[in-house]
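ok so i was messing around last nite and threw this chain in just to see what happens. nothing serious, just curious
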Amino acid sequence: MDLSIAAILGVDGVINGAIYALVAIALVLVFAVTRIVFIPQGEFVAFAALTMALFQTGALPGTVWLLLLMVALVLVLDAVRAWREAWPLARWARLALRTAALPLVACALTAWLVPKQPPMVVQALLTLALVTPMGPLVYRLAYRSLASASVLVLLIVSVGVHFALTGLGLVFFGAEGFRNPPFWDERLSLGPVTLSGQAIIILGASVALIVALFVLFDRTLTGKALRATSVNQTGARLMGISTDAAGSLSFTLAAFIGALSGLLIGPTTTVFFDSGFLIGLKGFVAAVFAGLTSFPLALVGALGVGLVEAFGSFWASAFKEVIVFTAILPVLLWRSFVDPHDEEH
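result:
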């Protein structure tokens, strides 16, 4: 291997690491606020990439039916709760409107615009509008009633949610894989390295989102409420912060980040209904490097995962996944020594 090959592999590793960084940041965010190891984060990535691909074919994405199914299930659960607790009809109606309004608008716009073949930017915005509402819906369906459960129980539930979403992905998207066209076709040469326009978009979007999250958590009242919840849920609740709202918002942000990641990764690889699992696992490796608590360390870990994957695929392409996931073992060992922890009762 000479320097030119090393430079090319390094650039590929950084680009892949930028995607894994977004996934890792979403995992850290959800865990910090809710103590949930959100294994299905990769499903949002796959759903967004497949939704965009179906837009390209002029077909109505299965995301529409999946989103409507989730809305219907949440409305049924809320109706049962309203009946048991004898809510006034107006209260349930307001809650139902807040739950269904944005998803129904997104689905209606999609059904109207799909036959017109809108520009890629519009398709991307519609994809974000369809996938992002799935985050709080998943939270309400699977996790809200278990807010006080142990981390182990929440982890088991996450495994079940992952399998459920993967099965629904097969039903609504089919087994065929898709690869999307890039958002920008230009190619820039930097010495021995050639950067595609899509790679530049990936890096730019990742940096922009990380900066936006920094501003959110450091400069806004909503972000500070999320930080307070992540530090001490009981204390945040006593100060008037709704931990339920914080959990829902963290899942909303995670779904948005996953959807954006799917749009970015779609043109670089073929995505199947179950591709999100591997993507999510690589993000999880980076998040574990950060102890599921630190956004900067998650970014460093993701870049490390991307570089290990790039150089591992060069030396032993058949074992690149094994190399990446083996890398988590010394990280776990290191974390077990440096992180104080107590037995959970």
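not much to say yet. Residues 3-337 form a domain with the ABC transporter involved in vitamin B12 uptake, BtuC fold (CATH 1.10.3470).
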